């Protein structure tokens, strides 16, 4: 049986790799790294810890994961990157650790991060998110499940991207992107409901029609935002409508700087 670890790889003796992990040529894996089963690490990747990577992930050549944050406030305290299962992290992606002791930058399950994506300190990405080439996430960005980010997008710190949202390529994202919406531009503007993404996600026709009504109330009426949110309560109860309503309520809460569960989670 051929060895799963290339002889030129440099792996710290204290690193914890499942026996099924494959490591390519000239990769470097640091002391406080833990990698789950059936994960592959491409050539010239650099993994530093504290870093936890789950099962069946594909880390492509040149990726740099778990290095210290690009944050002047960082003082050397131990912080984390935590990555779930079944992710594809393509060539030259960078994922930085969180800033404060015990905090984490987190990536969930089933995500695709294409080449040259940068995920800064304290970001959190949920599940089944697609981030296209050369997208840059500043610190404390939160991306909900099944969002799609087009290529060469810049996302400002503390911004939240709602679930099933679509961000058009080369957009500048400086404010929260509502769930289920398609946005694009510089600065980005809500253009329409994300019809394709909603249908691909398997929502029912009833869900789709309710979300179309939500879009018209929010973006095609003359109501203020508070008036529009009140009008949403007159629509039939629906979990996706409720999620969008809650998203907007959080966005207009005074002093809210974006949900950053990754920054709140402590690790032993």
List the helices and strands and how they pair.
Layout: E1 10-11, E2 16-17, E3 22-23, E4 28-29, E5 33-35, E6 40-41, E7 46-47, E8 51-53, E9 58-59, E10 64-67, E11 80-83, E12 88-89, E13 94-96, E14 104-107, E15 112-113, E16 118-119, E17 124-125, E18 130-131, E19 136-137, E20 142-143, E21 148-149, E22 154-155, E23 160-161, E24 166-167, E25 172-173, E26 181-185, E27 188-193, H1 195-200, H2 205-219, H3 225-232, H4 239-251, H5 261-264
Parallel strand pairs: 1-4, 2-5, 3-6, 4-7, 5-8, 6-9, 7-10, 8-11, 9-12, 10-13, 11-14, 12-15, 13-16, 14-17, 15-18, 16-19, 17-20, 18-21, 19-22, 20-23, 21-24, 22-25, 24-26
Antiparallel strand pairs: 26-27
């Amino acid at each position: 049986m051929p060895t799963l670890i290339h002889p030129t790889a440099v792996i710290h003796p204290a690193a914890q790799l499942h026996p099924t992990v494959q490591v390519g040529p000239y990769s470097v894996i640091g002391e406080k790294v833990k990698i789950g089963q059936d994960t592959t690490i491409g050539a010239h990747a650099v993994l530093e810890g504290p870093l936890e990577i789950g099962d069946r992930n594909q880390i492509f050549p040149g990726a740099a994961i778990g290095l210290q944050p690009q944050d002047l406030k960082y003082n050397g305290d131990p912080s984390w990157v935590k990555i779930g299962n079944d992710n594809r992290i393509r060539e030259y992606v960078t994922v930085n650790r969180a800033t404060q002791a015990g905090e984490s930058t987190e990536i969930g399950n089933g995500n695709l991060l294409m080449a040259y994506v940068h995920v800064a300190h304290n970001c959190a990405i949920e599940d089944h998110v697609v981030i296209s080439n050369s997208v840059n996430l500043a610190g404390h960005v939160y991306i909900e499940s099944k969002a799609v980010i087009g290529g060469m997008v810049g996302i400002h710190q503390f911004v939240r991207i709602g679930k099933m949202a679509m961000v058009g390529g080369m957009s500048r994202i400086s404010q929260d992107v509502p769930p289920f919406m398609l946005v694009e531009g510089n600065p980005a503007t809500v253009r329409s409901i994300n019809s394709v993404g909603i249908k691909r996600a398997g929502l029912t026709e009833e869900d789709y029609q309710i979300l179309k009504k939500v879009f018209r109330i929010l973006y095609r009426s003359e109501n203020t935002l508070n008036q529009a949110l009140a009008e949403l309560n007159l629509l039939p109860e629906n979990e996706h409508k409720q999620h969008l309503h809650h998203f907007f309520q959080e966005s207009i809460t005074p002093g809210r700087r974006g949900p950053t569960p990754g920054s709140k989670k402590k690790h032993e």
